[in-house]
Amino acid sequence: MSINEDTLVEDKAAIDSDRFVEVSYDDAIPNNVDLSSDRQLLKALEGWHPKYLEWWKEMGPEGFQNADVYLRTAVGVDPAGWAKFGYVKMPEYRWGILLAPKVEGRTIPCGRHKGEPAWQEVPGEYRALLRRLIVVQGDTEPASVEQQRYLGATAPSLYDMRNLFQVNVEEGRHLWAMVYLLVKYFGKDGREEAQALLERRSGQQDNPRILGAFNERTPDWLSFFMFTYFTDRDGKMQLAALAESGFDPLSRSCRFMLTEEAHHLFVGETGVGRTVEATCTAMVKAGITDPYDTEAIRKLGVVDLPLLQRKANFHMSVTRDLFGSEISSNGAEAFSSGLKGRFNEANLKGDDHQLTDATYNVTRVVDGQLVDEAVPALRAINCRLLDDYMADCQGGIDRWNKIIEKAGINFRFKQPYKGFNRRIGEFAGQRINPDGQLITEAEWQAGVAAWLPNDADMAFINSLMKPCHEAGQYASWIAPPRMGINQQPVDYEYVKID
Ligand code: BYC
Questions:
Q1: From its phi and psi, is residue 287 left (phi > 0), alpha (psi between -120 and 50) or beta?
Q2: What pTM was estimated for this model as a whole?
């Protein structure tokens, strides 16, 4: 592995799951799916390519399309060296179609077709549901690029700017991955869906992106880091669930996407971690011990820890909504049909992977009380993935807390209660505080400024967003990384701005 963020377990886990397959770079669209032998598909994708580039130029990173960016490009799916690094202008990035290698003899891991050979073609009876899952997944990819398009201008360093653009081009590649499936396997409908993916716009009133969180703004770098830690982690969980799909081309696409996703999570975790570190270092240096001495802390040009908690509360709650309703017949059908598994489905021990009689505990609001109810596990598939997601979030939170503990500051980040600030599912329409108490509207209004970022918080964060575009310089509010990218130093010129 040539990237040096390999200390993260998730990077290793994702990359270890793949085996090497040659990628053809001679074709206009780099691929390991033998595109040149399928003229019709090639023609359709070559027709989509210029429209994609138009979208990229209109909605991709604003102001840096001509900059030379030190990017990694996937050149294979070999865990030992799947990417190469070099300066690239983003519109010239080689967005390719890469599938993880086929596992011979793979069978459908769950649902009513469990044990049957994995489908290599779309199963007719599940066509609409499968298309919907691919479209929803595909829609999130360009959405995130749109959400982040103005951030280059306020990058806290060239290192961070490069990471932003890396994330952006790879989200673009993930869009290609889903478009490949739509165009290859869904005929005319698929081509129309591929076109529509370039037409919806994040946050636009009349043609928004499909899922809520992808219509929120990403107005500043703290939002970006929180997004890449918490929301890209929904990406990890959903891709992992789709990697268990009985539809083998979707499974193989998602397995390779997970390889790239690991870096996005790394950017989020270390971005927040470096912010925490800058705050703690500045507090210790100034002799401030009270983390709630907001005015004094903010004067140091760093972000106070309670504000970081409020930002995290916002991103966690909005991202939890992305799992859909905890109890869902759509979720049940996606699982029973074999199109989408649970997290780590094939390796789960102790059940029949069909869940015909199993139950799962879901917290619900009944007569003004929060109660745990055993519901059929099939209908609670979304709830289970959400629970797995919340457990997966904790690792980074613990590592951020270690930084605070080491500095001797009396403060710890916590995940808010699952039902806090939810708009989708069991808790939608309820007022619940971060500690998990059902409260009245008046209590919510009295407390919300302490639980979610308020206007003054956002204005303060905005005031910190001054560009730091000299190699080796880092904004006051964020510590330099411990290591650079691909063994380059931290003062490397990661972006050459023209
Ligand atoms: N906002 O039964 P329900 C990523 C809709 S992120 C708006 O509750 P279901 C990435 C739902 O579509 C991962 N609408 O839930 C991260 C349905 O509408 P239709 C993206 C919502 O269907 C960072 C209706 O409500 N991938 O990769 O079981 C950067 C009832 O749905 C929302 C996927 O999500 C919402 N939050 O589950 C870049 C995987 N939630 O169909 C990338 C594919 C629900 O009745 N998608 N609705 O019109 C799925 O598996 C499912 O579609 C969902 C929803 C889990 C999203």
A1: left
A2: 0.95
Ligand 1 close to Cβ of residue 178 (< 6 A) = no
CA 328 to ligand 1: nearest atom? 2
What 3 state SS string does 216-241 have? CCCCCHHHHHHHHHHHHHHHHHHHHH
Residue with tokens 């399309």: 65
On whether the CB atoms of residues 168 and 224 are closer than 8 A, the answer is no
Output the CA torsion sign for 12, 13, 14, 19: positive
| Residue to mutate (ligand 1; options 136, 141, 321, 342; most atoms within 8 A of CB) | 136
**From CA 10, how far away is CA 125, in angstroms rounded?**
35
Which token pair is 354? Answer: 């069909």
Confidence at 24, pLDDT banded by 50, 70, 90? confident
Distance 134 CA to ligand 1 centre (A): 11
Contact 60/90 with Cβ under 8 angstroms?
yes
Instruction: Point out the ligand 1 atom lying closest to the alpha carbon of residue 212.
Output: 1
Range in 15-29, 81-95, 127-141 with the lowest mean pLDDT: 15-29
- How far apart, in whole angstroms, are the C-alpha atoms of residue 158 and residue 397? 26
d(CA 364, CA 207): 33
The Å distance, Cα 136 to ligand 1 centre, comes to 6
129 lines ligand 1 (CB under 6 A): no
DSSP for 303-323 reads: --HHHHHHHHHHHHHHHHGGG
Q: Identify whether the C-beta of residue 432 lies closer than 8 Å to the C-beta of residue 423.
A: no
Distance of CA 277 to the CA centre of its chain: 23
Does the beta carbon of 337 sit less than 6 angstroms from any atom of ligand 1?
no
Can you give the pLDDT at residue 146? 98
Three-state DSSP class for residue 153: helix
111 Ramachandran zone, left/alpha/beta (phi>0; psi -120 to 50)? left
The predicted model gives 455-470 an average pLDDT of: 97
Average pLDDT, integer, range 112-139: 98
Q: Tens of pLDDT along 380-420?
A: 999 999 999 999 999 999 999 999 999 999 999 999 999 99
- 60: which 2 tokens? 């991709």
Q: What's the CA gap between 92 and 66, in Å, rounded? A: 10
Confidence (pLDDT) at 197: 98
- Do residues 220 and 475 make contact, with C-beta atoms less than 8 angstroms apart? no
Nearest residue to 154 via CA among 90, 61, 81: 61
Q: Using one digit for the tens of pLDDT, what is the confidence trace for 175-187?
A: 999 999 999 999 9
Length of the chain (residues): 498
Render 407-456 in DSSP notation, one character per residue: TT------PPPTTTT--SSTTTT--B-TTS-B--HHHHHHHHHHHS--HH
CA of 270 to the centre of ligand 1 (A): 27
